[in-house]
Design brief:
The chain has helices at 8-14, 31-36, 84-89, 112-117, 133-145, 154-165, 174-185, 191-199, 203-206, 208-211, 228-242, 246-254, 273-276, 278-288, 292-309, 316-325, 332-347, 359-371, 376-379, 386-415; strands spanning 2-6, 23-27, 40-41, 48-50, 57-60, 62-66, 74-78, 99-100, 106-107, 120-121, 151-152. It is α+β, with helices and mostly antiparallel strands.
């Protein structure tokens, strides 16, 4: 059986980048011969098998022909006469169109190694334009390798832009958009994903709610960068330094969607944007099939991020109710996720990138003070139903008030 290591494993090995998955290509075989060797079929749209021992993926060499719009509109031909070069020709980028044979010799008919060395993301052939998912994939590879200096080739950017004009991006299904976005948010530089999509005019088609933020001004004294879209990407950059979790990064990215709905007559102020964007966020998450726990965090950050920024000014009852709303008394992880997203928002402004965010520790300590109240007396006074909740709320407010007084005294003493 003639096998080749292909795709990301070759690319990342040449980059001295961590290799996590090994994909193999088989030339000269059939479905029947693979089954006879004990391979287990798993491919739905084309012949892919799992190795009986290693469980790595082995795919038969194939060619593809466009038959209809969208990424599923292809006719696949997989047969023993398909060569390694023909299979590599159908791939998206030159850096993904390389293979290593059983003797570790590089097969590189489209000069992918040169593009690796020159840090270029370049399409293999005009057939690139037949699959709209490749727009997302190029953007995702930019997010993966931007910190190494990779850029999209100008001819590839132009081709992606032509695909958008022809309506190819309109055929992207929500599940695939979310899958690629989710992967991009896990990468080192997720901002590059959205920058590449915007450069080829795909952002307004795929993520119109995010695209609408560009060109929307904010008060310069609070946002020296002024543009809300720029601020949004700065927040994503900051949150990527604070956390690798997708839900936190997503919440930071989407927190200001409401500013895209502010009437022009109200610019540059955005009063009420925290609630104005909630329905927009609901629709965004519904359209892309975003997991519910991700959506819930996004909703909380959108609605309460300005509360968090003004935390030291809030009354004890307002702070208690906010902590209750974000489930701070039940889920420490949710509280921490909320704080990190808000901290990224505060730092995602020109000149504020390295500012301290005392609200973070203040909120953690306030939540801890409210959680540590003694509720035994309430539970043994025959309180029932809503009365228990009201009594606990009063105890929490009192605990937070004491904490605030202690905090203020400590800060005053340090200042003096």
């Amino acid at each position: 059986m003639k096998t080749y290591l292909v795709g990301g494993a070759v690319r990342d090995r040449l980059l001295a980048y961590p290799v996590s998955e090994f994909d193999w290509l088989v030339v000269g075989e059939t479905v029947e011969s693979m089954l006879a060797r004990g391979f287990r079929p798993v491919g739905k749209d084309f012949p892919v098998f799992l190795h009986p021992v290693t469980h790595d993926e082995y795919a038969l060499a194939r060619t593809e022909r466009k038959t209809a719009p969208g990424y599923k509109g292809f006719e696949v031909y997989a047969a023993p006469d398909v060569t390694i070069e023909e299979d590599l020709l159908r791939r998206d980028l030159t850096i993904n169109a390389m293979a290593l044979d059983s003797d570790d010799r590089l097969i590189d008919p489209f000069h992918g190694q040169d593009d690796l060395n020159n840090r270029i993301l370049r399409h293999v052939s005009p057939a690139f334009s037949e699959d709209p998912v490749r727009i997302l994939r190029v953007a995702r590879f930019a997010a993966r390798y931007a910190h190494l200096g990779f850029k999209v080739a100008e001819e590839t950017r132009q081709l992606m832009q032509e695909m958008v004009v022809k309506g190819e991006a309109d055929h992207l299904v929500p599940e695939r958009v979310w899958a690629e976005m989710c992967k991009a948010l896990q990468e080192t530089t997720p901002t590059a994903f959205f920058e590449v999509l915007r450069d080829c005019d795909a952002l307004k088609v795929i993520f119109p709610e995010i695209d609408a933020l560009f060109g929307v001004p904010q008060p310069e004294q609070y946002h020296p960068e002024i543009d809300t879209g720029i601020h949004t990407l700065m927040v994503l950059e900051q949150v990527s330094r604070l956390s690798a979790k997708v839900d936190i990064r997503l919440a930071a990215l989407l927190h200001d969607l409401g500013k895209g709905l502010t009437p022009r007559s109200g610019w540059p102020s955005h009063h009420g944007h925290e609630k104005l964007g909630l329905s927009l966020l609901e629709n965004f998450c519904e359209r892309l099939r975003v997991p519910r726990n991700y959506k819930n965090l996004c909703l909380l950050v959108m609605q309460y991020h300005t509360h968090c920024h003004r935390l030291l000014e809030l009354r004890a009852d307002t702070l208690t109710d906010m902590l209750q709303a974000i489930f701070a008394f039940k889920h420490d992880e949710r509280l921490e996720a909320f704080i990190l997203a808000c901290e990224a928002d505060a730092r995602g402004r020109t000149g504020f990138e390295n500012r301290d965010y005392p609200q973070a520790d203040f909120m953690r300590q306030a939540a801890l003070a409210a959680k540590n109240i003694d509720t035994h007396a309430i539970l043994h006074e025959n309180n029932k139903g809503a009365d228990i909740g009201i009594a606990i709320r009063k105890l929490r407010i009192a605990a937070i008030e004491r904490f605030k007084q202690h905090y203020s005294a400590t800060v005053k003493q340090i200042t003096v």
